[in-house]
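Inverse folding, one chain.
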């Protein structure tokens, strides 16, 4: 039996990279027999001149498989294959942010970083209006939509449900979903997972979301501020811990981590997704992009220490600044680098 392998990669679109994928039929008995680990999947190529990753005269880029997941869309033995983009000489392509993340994961392995990422996103009609927005004008102001139920509060629930089922089938570490503050806005969480795992799985979960929404004629946007004005933006709050933070007495490491991240606030903000200034305005449960603060329970701070964590005196912190459109390889790498390099 042939296996359909959907090779997924991240392109070179600026300022926000997009997902691409294409199908490889695996039907060679010699390949199928050996298909156990990720290294058994063949490398593949694509036309980088069509993805802003190469010029036409040197168009070939290489897809190197890094994780395989059961394909919840096609079912059976079919698979989704997350790939890194490589140059033909075997080096990482400049758009490949996973390679650096892998180096950081290895360097700070002993700190056992864990991440839980809350991916907020917006479902749009083909005309660009969010689901739940009338074609002209605006819906009733924000208030009843967050975690709401019923026709007047909620649109698009079936897509979110299908997506959650698909993630579970694929073995992605999805930990929940909720309707968000703006109509048509939803969230799913991936984690807690290690640095590379959470980032690989978040990208594949995004791919699944786009793919499932196709069948509903709905467009998925992870844009940070899809509707200007008094409407919440879409973030990707990044919850982070090291083993020291999770153990008894971990609170001092959590505070030290907040301070270490604060000392590099500008570097982080610059890498937290396109349009971060439009979202981090100081309103709508955000701290301003040009200010840094941390605090217990404070959803207006850059970093929130959850209330339960301050009671337990151990746990994790929540960096609330990353945008919905951030690259988790970049954000998780930076947080690990910044916090672990400051640890004695
Ligand atoms: P919020 O109250 O901010 O909406 P969520 O429940 O949406 O929080 O997300 C919290 C995330 O934090 C989840 O993905 C969860 O798995 C993750 N998380 C929990 N414990 C840890 C930990 N020790 N380290 C990192 N992430 C964690
Ligand atoms: Mn959340
Ligand atoms: Mn949220
Ligand atoms: Mn949050």
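Residues assigned per position:
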């Amino acid at each position: 039996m042939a296996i359909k392998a959907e090779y997924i990669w991240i392109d070179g679109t600026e300022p926000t990279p997009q997902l691409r994928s294409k199908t490889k039929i695996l039907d060679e008995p010699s390949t199928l027999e050996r298909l156990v680990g990720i290294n058994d999947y063949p490398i593949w190529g694509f036309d980088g001149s069509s993805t802003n990753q190469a010029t036409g005269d040197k168009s070939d880029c290489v897809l190197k498989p890094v994780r395989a997941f059961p394909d919840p869309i096609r079912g059976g033995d079919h698979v989704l294959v997350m790939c890194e983009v490589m140059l033909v000489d075997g080096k990482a392509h400049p758009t490949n942010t996973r390679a650096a993340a892998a180096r950081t994961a290895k360097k700070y392995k002993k700190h056992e970083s864990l991440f839980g990422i809350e991916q907020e996103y917006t479902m749009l009609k083909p005309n660009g209006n969010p689901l739940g927005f009338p074609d002209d004008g605006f819906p009733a102001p924000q208030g009843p939509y967050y975690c709401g139920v019923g026709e007047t509060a909620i649109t698009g629930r079936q897509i979110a449900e299908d997506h959650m089922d698909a993630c579970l089938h694929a073995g992605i570490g999805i930990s929940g979903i909720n309707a968000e503050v703006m109509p048509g806005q939803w969230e799913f969480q991936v984690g807690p997972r290690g640095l590379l795992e959470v980032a690989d799985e978040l990208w594949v979960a995004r791919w699944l979301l786009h793919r499932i929404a196709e069948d509903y004629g709905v467009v998925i946007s992870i844009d940070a501020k899809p509707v200007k004005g008094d409407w919440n933006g879409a973030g990707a709050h990044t919850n982070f811990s090291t083993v020291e933070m999770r153990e008894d007495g971990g609170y001092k490491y959590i505070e030290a981590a907040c301070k270490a991240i604060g000392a590099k606030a500008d570097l982080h903000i610059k890498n937290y997704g396109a349009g971060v200034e439009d979202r981090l305005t100081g309103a709508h449960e955000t701290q301003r992009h040009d200010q840094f603060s941390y605090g217990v329970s404070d959803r207006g701070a850059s970093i929130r220490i959850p209330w339960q964590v301050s009671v337990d005196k151990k746990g994790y912190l929540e960096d609330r600044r990353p945008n919905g459109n951030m690259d988790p390889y970049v954000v998780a790498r930076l947080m690990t680098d910044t916090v672990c390099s400051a640890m004695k």
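The chain has ten helices and 13 strands. The chain has a mean pLDDT of 96.
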